[in-house]
Write a structure and sequence with these properties.
alpha/beta, Trna Endonuclease, Chain: A, domain 1, five-stranded mixed β-sheet, 6 helices, globular
Length: 177
């Protein structure tokens, strides 16, 4: 069950993390908390280190919640608590992890979003936004991006579900935010 006080404590831990380890673990713990509050979503694995990859969170999707009905039964979540936007190489790496596992959906939680401005016609700096579009149209890999500024405004789990639904719909219109 979602508790706003607990959620805000997680937000504060992310905002006040100082070391790289604290930054990474605090964002993963916030994400884990959120997903475990959703009916039919269960965090099954955290920080899975395979020979050639790491998965921050692996979710089991029982497809009870309408928002997650079109998603895969397994959902990979990548968390990046960086001081700058995540670049295209990180999106490419994450899309490869999804594709190699024969999945089609993933959630990329990046504290400061991703690079690029493809949506606004700035094709000179294609960045991660452009790569999200490329992975969708070329391989059918659907990745939504969630930023800390999105999470800071939440007061209920229903608002988070609406955010996920909004981002999922927008990727088909080549919009990230």
């Amino acid at each position: 069950m979602f508790d706003l006080t607990t959620f805000n404590t997680h937000i504060d831990l992310v905002d006040n993390a100082s070391t790289n380890q604290e930054k990474g673990s605090s964002l993963e713990n916030l994400s884990k908390y959120l997903f475990n509050c959703i009916d039919g979503i269960e965090v099954r694995e955290t920080n899975v280190n395979a020979p050639a990859e790491e998965v921050d969170l692996l979710l089991w999707n029982a497809k009870i919640e309408e928002v997650f009905a079109p998603w895969d039964s397994l959902i990979s979540v990548e968390c990046k608590n960086w001081s700058r936007p995540a670049g295209s190489h990180l999106i490419d790496n994450f899309a490869t992890k999804i594709r190699v596992k024969h999945l089609t959906t993933g959630i990329f939680i990046a504290s400061n979003g991703v690079t690029g401005d493809f949506v606004n016609g700035n094709n000179e700096n294609r960045g991660a936004v452009y790569r999200l579009h490329e992975h969708l149209t070329r391989d059918g890999v659907r990745i939504i991006v969630i930023r800390m500024e999105d999470l800071r405004t939440l007061t209920t789990i229903e608002e988070f579900l609406d955010l996920v639904k909004d981002r999922y719909c927008k990727i088909y219109m080549h919009r990230v935010f």
